Amino acid sequence: MKPAPFQYFAPTTIDETLALLAEHGDQAKILAGGQSLVPTMNFRLATPMILIDINRVGELSYIDSRNGNLAIGAMTRQRTLERDGEIARRAPLVAATMPFIAHPQIRNRGTLGGSLAHADPAAELPAVMIALDAKFKLSSQKIERWFDARDFFTGLFSTTLTPNELLSEIVLPPMPPHTGWAFQEMARRHGDFALAGVACIVTLDARGVCNDARIVLLGLSGQPVDARNAAKQLIGVEPSADAIRAASQTIDAEIDPSADIHASAEFRRHLAKTLTQRALQQAVARAKES
C-alpha cells in the first residue's frame, strides 16, 4: 500500500513548526519517528493533507536538569533514553522500560513525544509517564499549556492536544528518597504489543511504611488505567507480601479489559493482577534497598 497524496514540509525550528500548525490545523500531521504514523498512512488509516516532518528541529531533542527536574525534549529518541546515564540515574523506570518497546531498530527512530502523542493503549511510555507524575508542555503560536500526564490521555488514540499544538517537552520530577520502581508486561513474543502491563512506584518512610504508591496499567482499555484505589491500599501500612497480594487483587474493581484474537478479557484480568503483584514486590524491594 501507498499513502494518499500529501504536501510535505520539513521545518528546522520550533517557531516554523508552530506557524505551519497554525496555518494548516487539523489538515496536518506531525511526523516524528514515524514508526506509528507511516504504517497507518500506508494502510490509509490516516490520510493527512499536510505532513510536517520535525526531524530537523534539533532544539526538540535534549535531556536537561532544570530546577531539580529532568526536562526531556519531545524529539529525544527512545534509544537515547535507553542508554543515557542521567536517565538511568534519575529516572531508572524509564531506562528499564525501554527494552520492552518493540525492537532496537524501532527505538532508534521512535521518539518520546511521538509515542505519547500517538496514545496507543498498548504503549508502555504513557503508563510510565503517569506513574512518574510527569508534566507535558503543549506549545502553539498563541499559548503554552502544561498538563499532568494523568490528564493528557483522554481515550483511544486521543489526547488533549489541539490541531495547532505540539507536544514539545516532558518534565519528570525527582523521585523521593526510599523510592522503588518496577515495570512488568506480558507479550506473546518480545517486541509484540503487550497483552497487559504495569508500571509501579512505591515510596517508604524511615520505618518502612508506605507513604506513596502508584500503579498504572496498560493494554487493558482505550487508555492507561491509573489504579489509585489499589495504590491506596498500601499507603499507611508496611508493604508485606500479604498487603501486596491484597492490593493486587483490588485491581479487579478498577479495570474493564477488552477481548480480542490475542487474549480474552478474563485472561487480561488475570494478567493485570499477577503483573501488579510482581511489580509491587520488585518496587518494594528496591525501595528497601535504597
Task: Note the topology.
Layout: E1 7-9, H1 14-24, E2 28-31, H2 37-42, E3 50-53, E4 63-66, E5 69-73, H3 78-83, H4 85-90, H5 92-97, H6 104-109, H7 112-118, H8 124-131, E6 135-139, E7 144-148, H9 149-152, E8 153-155, E9 158-159, E10 166-172, E11 179-186, E12 196-204, E13 210-218, E14 225-226, H10 228-232, H11 241-249, H12 265-289
Parallel strand pairs: 1-3, 2-3
Antiparallel strand pairs: 4-5, 5-10, 6-7, 6-10, 8-9, 11-12, 12-13, 13-14
Observed structural traits:
290 residues, alpha+beta, Uridine Diphospho-n-acetylenolpyruvylglucosamine Reductase, domain 2, Enolase-like, domain 1
Strands ordered across the widest β-sheet: 4-5-10-6-7
User: Over all CA atoms, what is the radius of gyration?
Assistant: 19 Å
CATH topology heading of the largest domain: Uridine Diphospho-n-acetylenolpyruvylglucosamine Reductase, domain 3
Structural class: alpha+beta
Query: Under the CATH scheme, which class of the largest domain?
Result: Alpha Beta
Content of β-strand = 15-25%
Largest sheet: 5 strands, antiparallel
Write up what this structure looks like.
Helix content is 34%, strand content 24%. It has helices spanning 14-24, 37-42, 78-83, 85-90, 92-97, 104-109, 112-118, 124-131, 149-152, 228-232, 241-249, 265-289; strands at residues 7-9, 28-31, 50-53, 63-66, 69-73, 135-139, 144-148, 153-155, 158-159, 166-172, 179-186, 196-204, 210-218, 225-226. A hairpin with a 2-residue loop joins strand 8 and strand 9 (158-159). The longest helix has 25 residues, at 265-289. The N and C termini lie far apart (52 Å).
